[in-house]
Design goal:
Arc Repressor Mutant, subunit A; Beta-Lactamase; alpha+beta; five-stranded antiparallel beta sheet
């Protein structure tokens, strides 16, 4: 599991000329730097970004990236023998679907693989990391990953509001990065008006509400909605929102 520099992000995803363009698009390097800055402000001293090959539809050339909150382009190396073990830990987190601290799951991991778990724990401690807050993130194109933040203290001693913000911003960052580089095999294309209608559908607005907001007639909203359903291959508003996120055509 070799580490990557921020500048190597362009090699991680198969960049498509037909990628979805975002009005407020930020390049991946900027997204990562912002997340690093935020984590550092909350006391984190490292960050890792691991894409799960078991649960992700995008093909990645290097699924594991490591950054230091103190440096944007570190040369740190993660021992190769930790690759499979950390991958299993993160796949476990994705199945659970909720953030966990490494200290809280160490007892479980030690039962399965005591020696490698202890080695990883000692390696982290030697780098000044007392605990790791692991956040499963779920993005467009059914791409799943885990973003982890190392802390020099146990996460029980970190401000819960800070951890909550890291969860929110990690999800946003993952969505931005995946949508920048990725492309759905179905290549769903929505017009700007259809995107606007879809965005309000995802927020739970009725056709009449959307008509008022967009200053169009309810019948026009109904027409756009039917077109959206057809393009996404769904039959209801909730499924449309879920499928749009999976296809990467719904702005987060």
């Amino acid at each position: 599991m070799q580490t990557s520099k921020c500048g190597d992000l362009a090699q991680v995803f198969p960049r498509s000329k037909d990628r979805i363009s975002l009005k407020s698009e930020m390049r991946p390097l900027g997204v990562v730097r912002n997340l690093l800055a935020l984590s550092k402000a909350h006391g984190s001293n490292s960050m890792s970004y691991h894409f799960s090959p078991l649960y992700s539809s995008l093909k990645l050339t290097e699924p594991y990236l490591y950054f230091s909150a103190g440096k944007a382009l570190p040369r740190n190396k993660i021992p190769q023998e930790f690759v499979e073990a950390i991958g299993r830990y993160h796949d476990f987190l994705i199945r659970e679907g909720a953030p966990r601290s490494f200290s809280s799951v160490v007892p479980t991991f030690r039962k399965v693989a005591p020696e490698i778990t202890e080695a990883i724990w000692n390696f982290a401690n030697s780098r000044g990391i007392a605990d790791d807050y692991m956040i499963p993130v779920f993005g467009p194109f059914d791409t799943k990953a885990v973003i982890s933040f190392g802390f020099p203290v146990l996460t029980d001693d970190v401000d819960p509001a800070a951890l909550k913000e890291l969860v929110k911003e990690s999800t946003n960052a993952h969505n931005e990065i995946v949508r920048y580089f990725g492309k759905s095999d179905r290549n769903v294309e929505l017009s700007q008006r259809e995107r606007s209608v879809l965005a309000w559908i995802a927020k739970g607005k009725s056709n009449n509400d959307i008509a008022t907001i967009l200053d169009i007639t309810p019948s026009s909203v109904d027409t756009y909605t039917r077109r959206i359903f057809k393009k996404l291959g769904v039959n209801d508003r909730i499924s449309a929102s879920m499928q749009a996120l999976k296809e990467g055509v719904l702005d987060s």
